[in-house]
Write a structure and sequence with these properties.
The complex is a heterodimer of chains A (about 250) and B (about 300).
Chain A: H1 2-17, H2 19-43, H3 48-66, H4 69-78, H5 80-86, H6 91-121, H7 129-153, H8 157-174, H9 186-192, H10 196-208, H11 217-238
Helix pairs in contact in A: 1-2, 1-6, 2-3, 2-6, 3-6, 3-7, 3-8, 3-10, 4-7, 4-8, 6-7, 7-10, 7-11, 10-11
Chain B: E1 2-11, E2 14-24, E3 29-33, H1 40-48, E4 55-60, E5 63-64, H2 69-72, E6 76-79, H3 91-102, H4 108-113, H5 129-141, E7 147-151, H6 159-174, E8 178-183, H7 186-192, E9 195-200, E10 203-208, H8 210-215, E11 221-227, H9 231-235, E12 242-248, E13 251-256, H10 259-272, E14 277-283, H11 287-296
Parallel strand pairs in B: 3-8, 3-9, 6-7, 7-8
Antiparallel strand pairs in B: 1-2, 1-4, 4-5, 9-10, 11-13, 11-14, 12-13
Classes of the chains: A mainly alpha (about 250), B alpha/beta (about 300).
Chain lengths: ~250, ~300
Amino acid sequence: MNAFKTHFAFEFRTGIRNRQLLLLNYLFPIGFYFMMGLIMTDINPGFRDVLIPSMVTFSVLAATLLGLPEPIVKAREAGILRSFKIYGVSAMALLVIPVLTTMVHLTIVALVITLTAPLLFGAPLPTNWAAFILVFGVGTFTCSFIGILIGVIARSTRITILYSQILFLPSMLLGGLMVPHHVLSETMGKVALLLPASHVMNAFKGIAMGQPASFHAWGSLSVLLMGGVIAFVLALYGFKWDSSDKKI
Amino acid sequence: MIHVRNLKKKYNHVVAVGGVSFSVQKGEVFGLLGPNGAGKTSILECLEGIRHPDGGQIEIAGINAIREAHKLRKVIGVQLQSGALPETITPDEVMRLFCSYQGVATRYDFLDRFGLGQKRTTQFHQLSTGQQRRLSLALAVGHDPQVLFLDEPTAGLDVAARKELHQLIVEMKSHGTTIILATHDMAEAEVLTDRVAILLKGELVAMGSPMDITRSGAGWSKISVQTRDQKLQHTDPTIPGIKHKKKSNNYIQYFSSDTGATVSAIISFIESQEDQLLDLRVERPSLEDRFLELTAE
């Protein structure tokens, strides 16, 4: 337990000390939130209703899909994971601790967004706070382990960026953050169902914000949870200590 | 303390280690020598539990290193050839982190002992190569292991840093730590090790003390002579025990299998020619010479 706490504390400090992680965990999401709050609420006043869930979801996507994979790949390529193995650090710790620290960083960002959006942009607060926290927790859990899985299976940092963007960009366009699900074509709507962002937004709207959901909200939550567990199991199974290990 | 029997390792179809056996006694410094690609690192990584061997048996301090690799961590310390750590981690943080995973109290005193007292809060990427090596050595011994593995510990270090690291290794040996040292620096092996194993293309070609291995070779001593009038060079006398000779600057160098007879004959000749001896040097065959002989065979 002491080792876990020590490792967690170091990993948390890295999230602030490392400029790239600081950017992806804090500066990028909060900056984007302020920009969208200023511009989108002006262009489309109805966007206020989804400002909080969409910006919280965006923060989750940025920190997890963009922020989590690369450190794992770089650590593997540089031989850092081998050093960790030598000193008794488990694969489980290396996969779980970054997820937990990211969740803490995201909680801070979500608090900033949720508490300032009503004051600055007139956005409505969640009607069910317990549900909001639940959806946020499950969404963060799932997207985090998807990010970790990308880091585990990507063979190089270049491939990592490609895999991350393959998931991040469609999530931004089709995930319900900017464009509601119901205005998508039938085909695009089905494609959107493959994206975790769609389910996070749907669950936020249907369960936490008191708004109509595009499809079964609790079903979305279940899909997210299952997806997160599957991603975790696959990441644990496919984990490699260095580039010459043969797994996935 | 360490028993290795018929160890094998291959990568795809390339045989890195082709059936190597050796034992290491408690408190011994055992060297693994060989050129790049000889299999040193592969052997070390199998002993350290980083790689799974394709055949053979490994026992370290009574632990089956293949079936019980998880138990090895408490018993062994490892300094990797490329011991990378997260860029922003500090010596304080990494010592605390790894000691906590080893289940021992944090050994900040080792940071002072290994010359990192002033750098405890410096981030890893800001340390010099020598400081990074000393940090990885401090981490390797932080939990007081019975066996220490060092993979090219002085590679890339300057002369002063290398000497410092050698002193640290000698100090650890004096405390009874069993040390396995992989290196392609023959001089380092001659100074530090009790016994060495010479590897070539995954096979063990020689094993013994540096002195025994050196003696087992052709044993040619190099005798360098400089005289005032250079009569040896001009008259070219017959000297007993000579394999060949060559000129180097103002010296003539004889390669001899009978040092005593050759030196006596040289001095007698110089006296007979009324020349004056300015310098005479006798160099015993080194481990490097023997290594080059073995790799040429």
